[in-house]
Design goal:
The chain has a seven-stranded mixed β-sheet, sandwiched between helices. Helix 6 packs across helix 7 and helix 8 packs parallel to helix 9. It is of the alpha/beta class.
Length: about 350
């Protein structure tokens, strides 16, 4: 393949655009299907099995990004525009990359996140970290502030097979300002479970201010990962689960524990302004239980629930779950497979 440079201005006037697309491991085929349903004709090739693929859309880059960002897909967690393609084993590849970036006026004196990733099947001699450092050394002329979070611009470099793929975009255009959309949180001392990371990520991804809520119902709460997060945010929490809550929570002044099955409890109407549920139950059982408890959620209240994907047709399953909740006066704000979801997605809903 010949080296190819496609500037931003040139991309605006071509009818095709190329992107590196990333999903959770094993879910790339569903991310491809989402794009196929949205754009119709496309071409794609696998870069990392089940996770990363290169897609060509037969639409201008600006329009394609606007389409994706305005209504983010469920399984596509990150996109990187491809504006420059070079042979990864070429001695001058990094120098050409640097020269291309130094011609981008918007990067001068800006805050920039330089993100480099590398597939196992890459001929590039450098690791992802080494690629990043070598490129940084060549970009001092930008007089930019290179940051990890909240940049104005993201420079993305992806090495796969015999190619380097480079793009410049705003964080919003990437769907995430984390490299590859892989949001990392540090495990805290005494943390009850990793399930807490799902709410931390939902807080960032969905822009939810959990401190704005007063009273929460946690359905299927044990051992208490989500409950502990909500208590930290200052909420009063009612935790429902027949299993034991973690001992560190049992005497918390803002926690009421009901050691029962969710099907056995009822609450006053409009008692809560937040309902959360992260149970390892079938989607049908989860929806039935949550819907029975929805009268206790006030109008305008928020619900965050995970949906376990238990068979090979997740798109149809998700459609059925959303339709069922909408029948119960829940408006789905986002359906997304978070980085910390495994074989599940997270729904963010508001009651109307």
């Amino acid at each position: 393949m010949d080296d190819k440079i496609l500037t931003n201005d040139e991309q605006k006037h071509t009818t095709t655009s190329r992107f590196i697309c990333t999903a959770n491991h094993g879910f790339a085929p569903y991310a491809q299907e989402e794009l196929r349903r949205r754009f119709g004709k496309l071409k794609s090739s696998v870069l990392v099995s089940g996770e990363v693929f290169l897609v060509t859309l037969f639409e201008e880059a600006e329009q394609a990004v606007a389409n994706i960002v305005s209504n983010p897909p469920i399984f596509l967690r990150h996109i990187q525009p491809v504006q420059l393609e070079l042979r990864a084993d070429a001695d001058e590849a990094l120098e050409q990359t640097a020269q291309y970036l130094l011609r981008q006026d918007k990067l001068y004196e800006a805050s920039i996140s330089l993100q480099a990733r590398k597939a196992e099947r890459s001929v590039a001699a450098e690791s992802a970290g080494e690629l990043r450092e070598k490129l940084l050394q060549r970009l001092t002329g930008l007089n930019a502030d290179f940051v990890v979070r909240d940049p104005e611009w993201v420079i993305s470099v992806f090495a796969a097979e015999d190619m380097l793929y480079i793009g410049v975009s705003s964080p919003a255009e990437n769907l995430s300002d984390w490299s590859g959309g892989a949001i990392r949180f540090q495990r805290e001392e005494g943390q009850i479970s990793r399930a807490k990371f799902k709410l931390l990520e939902a807080e960032q991804s969905f822009g939810i201010d959990f401190r704005s809520f007063g009273s929460a119902l946690d359905v299927g709460a044990a051992p208490g990962g989500w409950t502990s997060f909500l208590l930290e945010r200052g909420l009063k929490v009612t935790a429902v689960d027949p299993a034991l809550m973690h001992e560190s929570l049992r005497n918390h002044p803002n926690l009421r524990i009901l050691k029962k099955n969710a099907s056995e409890v009822r609450f006053r109407e409009n008692e809560f302004d937040l309902l959360v549920c992260d149970m390892s139950w079938s989607p049908k059982q989860m929806v039935k239980l949550v819907k029975e408890l929805l009268p206790s959620l006030g109008t305008g209240g928020t619900a965050i629930v995970t949906v376990k994907l238990m068979h090979k047709k997740p798109m149809a399953l998700i459609g059925e779950v959303i339709a069922s909740f909408e029948e119960a006066q829940m408006q789905v704000q986002r359906a997304k497979q978070l980085f910390h979801n495994r074989d599940e997605i997270t729904l963010y809903m508001i009651k109307y």
